[in-house]
Amino acid sequence: MSQPIDTESFTPSGSGVNASMLKVENVSKVYHNAGHELTVLSGANLSVDAGECCAIVGPSGSGKTTLLGLCAGLDQPSSGRISLAGNPLQSLDQDALAALRNQYVGFVFQSFQLLPTLTALENVLVPLELQGMRGGRKLAVESLERVGLGERINHYPTQLSGGEQQRVALARAFIHRPQILFADEPTGNLDSETSAPISDMLFELNRTAGTALVLVTHDNELAKRAGRVVKMRSGRIEGEERHG
Amino acid sequence: MDKPATSTPESGAPQPLPQGTFALMVHPWTWLMALRDSRKEWKRLLIFAASIVVGISALVTIHALRSSLEQGIDLQARALLGADLLITSREAFTDADREAIDALAEESSFEISFSSMLNFVDSGGARLVQVRGIEGAYPFYGEVLTEPDAAWRNHQARDGLLLEPALLEQFNASAGDQVKLGNASIEIIGTVQQPAPRSGRFAGFAPEVYLRASLLEATGLLTDRSIASFHAHLRLSEEMASAEVIEALRTRDGADLWRFETPESRRDQLGRVLDQFEQFLGLIALFSLILGAIGVASAMHAQIRRRRASIAILRCLGAPARASFAIYLIQAGLLGLVAAVAGGGLGVGIHFGVVYYFAETLPVLVEPMPNLWVVGQTTLAGFLACCGFAVLPLLQIRDIAPLQVLRQGGSTAQARRRALLRSLPVVAFLFVVMTLLSILNSTNLARSLVLTVGFAGVFGVLALVAWTFIALTRKLTTERLPYLLRQGISNCFRPQNQTMLFVLSLGLGVFLMLSTMLIRDLVLAQVQVSESEIGPNIYLVDVQSDQVDGVKALLEGNDLPVLESAPMVSMRVAEIKGVSIRELREQGLVGNRMVRREFRSSYRDHLNETETHLGGTWPPSDWDGNEPIPLSLEVEIAGDLGVELGDRMVIDVQGVPIEVEVQHLRAVDWSRFNLNFFMLFPPGVLEGAPGFTVVTTRIPPDETSGQLQRALVEAFPNVSAIDLTLLLETIRTILARVTQAIQLLSGFTLGAGCCILIGIFLNGRDQRIRESVLLRTLGASTRQLRSILCVEFGVLGLLAALTGGGLALVTYSALAHFAFELSPVFHIGQILLVLLASTVLSIFMGALFSRGVCAHSPLATLRQD
Ligand SMILES: Nc1ncnc2c1ncn2[C@@H]1O[C@H](COP(=O)(O)OP(=O)(O)OP(=O)(O)O)[C@@H](O)[C@H]1O
Ligand SMILES: [Mg+2]
């Protein structure tokens, strides 16, 4: 199960070439529960280019989180193919998937998901440390300063408010310059005043660093700012809208 | 590699984390994360670690002591015997024997020892002593310390005796006083601080008195002793092996009744006795070690439970699957290391303490510094066991999917099966470690394997009983119970409860404590019997046939009853069913001891109340007075000799062979201390044979035998009074020491269990606070909250008490029946007390470690989530 994986063997995403960063082809997900099947995702197709910004909307239970999890290689589809930065996910084992995420992917979650035992700074450092990079501290402090938490670097998650925690999560998601960022309702737990700067930052990073952004949200306003809106219903992708 | 543009800060080329567990284990990042992760948990983890500290220190203590004792015995083996060879005989050595012995030895020393009354003329007291008449420069090795210093060196030249200081104290005597031994009046010339090696097997029950052998002539005691032993102590030249000497002497006439002892055989004999006791103690120590290891394992288990989310996030951020495993393995390892070092150190400390405080009780001189090699070895074994147990809960890490970041999910059946498969090698490893530990305990591999399986069995049974009780409680909790009670009970079954662990650790402690306590009481009660009942408590031995009437009259004159009076004649078995006993020995049909065994038999035509008729007739109905003579045999000895009703034997009565036929079998209740014999003859056979009479009497419980002994020694100086009460006192003291050691080690197990309990209480604290806050918000009063907590802790303690107590009662009954062959006695009050104590302990500790739970501010708690 664990053939030695070699991050260098990943196909480099075409820098400059307008290759597709994420490609989802005819993906389905079926849960088998106590004898009967539950199809939560069927025949989904989606393609996100490098640097593109895409929002996924849909009613609760329509399969948004499921799709996002599959795209990031956190779960296996029942059928269909997904490739991330040119790497077909089905051919990779857990460790290779982890290494791939560490190299190309950033995450922001609705419930922040900071490591409670680490300080803000240490949380931000983890992706760099996982890459084996030394001397990342300065970079981490900088990114915390960029999200306005330069004064709070040594605080633990429990000592921060929800909005602050999410900003730390944001700093952590960007520290290693991922080429694609997945955000599952990043402002879902926050009020509109707190969420505004967070979403601003997301879009700004998308623009300035050229990170592709896949954003799941209930907030139609937020979705519209993404430019491209994918609509889901009952496990199917119903259609797409382009704004602006 | 296509590096993201900004990931090249000031440092050199990034080195991705390795994938293998081992490579991860030595990677600095893993260590950094392990330390970061444990920052706020050390207190909790260390409390659990305390349990393994206790376990390891118990193990180290017992093994260090054991090796120290072994070493002491090895080094002092010669001094333990005092000679290169010791020959013991029931009969005096002839002049020819002496010559033969002297010819072989570089130097020799002869000794006669027997018990007799020593009469303190000045204070008018008398006491049974072990007299050792020595001739020559014994001991050749080791030293006898006396006060004054030169007394031992001089006693061969002077007319005087040396005795134990306690005797002087008891009778208010001092050196220079005259005492009477038999008919002779002898001066006390000093006291013995450190005695000469004991020569008799049963020595030690009476204080020893030393004097020159030639002085014994004047006492008149030498001729009419029923139990005297004769010893030859030999110092051999370097070239002479003791085996050769034994070989040369064994062929002499009568020498096959001699017992030969060398420093090696004495060492082995002492070693064997100690070894068995130590093995037993080692077993209890192993219990505390395993309990400690379980404590660490459960600490790690709780730690992983709390860290599920963190582990999922790490994997989500791209950490290799084995990274988290490595992180927690490092934590467990560090914990184990700290515990092992502390446990080893504590063990060394306890060793020092034991050697210092119990120096007098230990059979040999022991260095206070334990053998560090043994300490290291034991500590390492404990460390490995701890790590092995801790790895078990870590295995579940591999099953924490990164998807859990998005959605909390339980593990699938498939994942559980995988986890089970993965745990197999660890279980195998644990089995090997446990077997190694058992081998440390007893070097026999087969026995060690049995022991390991036995351990698994005990824990299995304990777990099963615990599980049953837990399930029952759950089932029996009905709606009808008052709310507070119901809430408290259901608290024990909240998700991620540690009820099972709790019941297991406290239950094991209760089990060990209660079962050792019950067994001790059973054995002690056995020793107590004679004092409470109507049986005899004074034996007057060595009464000559012409003194019997006088002794009886003396007893009656002192208002004491003559309970029994039995003549006693020594004899040996010569032939069984026509085959000589020596042949039988060569064929391996009877043991060596049977050949040497001296039976003291009696004759009477009735059975006493402690004897039960089993078969045949007694007294014999149609015996014509000729050989074969009818014989009544005790049933067990009949089994040992391999004879049944109707079988014939030849008995050697001090040189005269008599043919007998087994015509009666009986069982004897030996515990009642009546005068009983393995062989009973009909009257009219043994009357002429040299022998002695034993007369028993009973002194009322509140009186001492002092007055009787004085009167007796005046009138019949050769008669010895054995005071059973004193004898039993000695046995009780020894038993008390043994049980003390056992309970000390059981205490270790209880200690390890308590550490786990504290850990469990602390683990559940957050949960309890959250629940209390919730109930508070719903309007519960502090009193109600406290009651609920009390019920919870009480139920936990009670479950543990029932589990451990129930198992202890079963074990106790089984041991009493099969090992001690006694019917178990249940002191309901005592058992209830132990169960109550366990429950109260649980409530007390629970309350102690949940202090402030009810006083928590709801707001602060709700914010924390
Ligand atoms: N392990 C599972 N077993 C069975 N069904 C599941 C499982 N996980 C998710 N589902 C179902 O899949 C469907 C899609 O869930 P998903 O979380 O993707 O919805 P969502 O669009 O993210 O909803 P929301 O907006 O509420 O977050 C739901 O109906 C859910 O009940
Ligand atoms: Mg969702």
Overview of the molecule:
The complex is a heterodimer of chains A (244) and B (865). Chain A has 244 residues and is an alpha/beta fold. Chain A has a single domain, classed as Rossmann fold (3-Layer(aba) Sandwich), CATH 3.40.50.300. Chain A contains seven helices and ten strands. Chain A has helices at 64-71, 94-104, 120-130, 137-146, 162-174, 192-209, 220-225, and strands at residues 20-33, 36-49, 53-57, 79-84, 87-88, 105-109, 180-184, 212-216, 228-233, 236-242. In chain A, the strands form two sheets. Chain A has a six-stranded mixed β-sheet with strand order 6-7-8-3-9-10, sandwiched between helices. In chain A, strands 2-1-4-5 form a four-stranded antiparallel β-sheet, covered by helices on one side. Chain A is globular and about 50 Å long. Mean pLDDT of chain A is 85; it is low at 1-9 and 11-17. By secondary structure, chain B is of the alpha+beta class. Chain B has a six-stranded mixed beta barrel with strand order 2-3-8-5-7-6. Chain B has a six-stranded mixed β-barrel with strand order 12-14-19-16-18-17. The model of chain B is unreliable at 1-11 (pLDDT under 50). The chains are: A alpha/beta (244), B alpha+beta (865). Chains A and B meet through helix 1, helix 2, strand 6 and helix 3 of A and helix 2, helix 10 and helix 11 of B. The structure holds adenosine-5'-triphosphate and magnesium ion. The site of magnesium ion has 2 residues of chain A, from helix 1.
